[in-house]
Amino acid sequence: MEFKRARSDEQRDERRRQILRTAAEMLAEMPVAKISLNELSRRVGLAKSNVLRYFESREAVLLELLDVEVRDWLAYLDHTLKASAGTPRERGDQLAADLAGSLAQRPALCDLTSAHAGVLEHNVSADVALRHKRATRDTYETQARLILRCLPELGSHDATQLAATATLITAAAWPYSRPPEALLAAYATDPALAAMRVDFTDLLRQTLAVTISGLLARQQNPPVGVPGLKG
């Protein structure tokens, strides 16, 4: 759809989608830190002031793009995560592998997640922050339901905890798994240092598997002396 000025609601919605699509294309070429509002405006074909009619800041664009990427990921999980046979430990390990593998296939989502707290939640209004946090709450609830499909033993509270842990570990591990050229050269020069390089998929899988095992163990062995629980 081509138009010089968005006049109808349909045109305004399409213009917002165009801006988000362009931001997603840029994210496939460069990290979040290098995406500027000036370059985004140029690629969309609008003045920066016009882009700001639809999104209040660069961060607001990327924050909404993060929500879009998360919804796409959840749709994929809804299609692929299946209940299976096996012990809770076996099913937990498989769930950890499925979650880690699916995130590793989504570099844009991982990059946005790694910039979430430190960048994307800054320079936005309270209204934008409120919409995003509500979307995040819905995301965790949806992810928890998908987790329970594979591992009902966790219960809703621990499934939500696992969903939050997956986000936090992704945010921490992703930048470490993308070292700059200087570190790559250091690893190549001294092979003894190569073990320090982070493999994103493996680290996330192992961390989620251990988290799942820990959550299940705590359910089976509640603390002694807590009212209402048997020691």
From TrEMBL:
Specify the HTH tetR-type domain's residue ranges: 13-73
Family matches, as InterPro entries: Homeodomain-like_sf, HTH-type_TetR-like_transc_reg, HTH_TetR, TetR_C_34
Feature: DNA-binding region: 36-55
Q: Does the keyword Transmembrane apply?
A: no
Q: Which domain of life is it from?
A: Bacteria
Q: Which UniProt keywords apply?
A: DNA-binding
| Pfam families, sorted | TetR_C_34, TetR_N
Identify the SUPFAM superfamilies for this entry.
Homeodomain-like (SSF46689)
Cell inner membrane: is it a keyword of this entry?
no
Q: Which PANTHER family match?
A: HTH-TYPE TRANSCRIPTIONAL REGULATOR PKSA, HTH-TYPE TRANSCRIPTIONAL REGULATOR RUTR
Protein's UniProt name: TetR family transcriptional regulator
In the record, what lineage is assigned to the organism producing the protein?
Bacteria, Bacillati, Actinomycetota, Actinomycetes, Micromonosporales
